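User: ABM domain-containing protein. Structure?
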Amino acid sequence: MHWNEHSVICTYRVRADRRQDFIALLERHWPTLHAAGLVSETPAVHFEAVPSEDPHDEKGPTFVEIFSWANAEAPHMAHRMPEVMAIWEPMGGMVEARDGRPPMEFPRFRPLALGGA
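Assistant: Predicted structure:
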């Protein structure tokens, strides 16, 4: 796998009644971005929060998606592509702010090479 300086760790806090619908969109998300040439060749990695009573854990359905944009302009270009917006717009209606956190977060990261990794 090759990550780049345009990697994003997306967090989606999904309404409980929309979990399955959201998963269906999430399945199409990276393939659509890839077909449009917006992301690197490294496939997205997905995680679902584990339900627990631990106060540090997410409450309710929460998904994380990690992928690398092809370049710095790609996320801006995506907003002008109907095939991407056909996924993003419905996603927006399926998420909610929770525990003082926003419905969705998209911070960027770059790889950090450490000695043992």
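The helical segments are 19-35, 74-78, 82-92. The radius of gyration is 15 Å.
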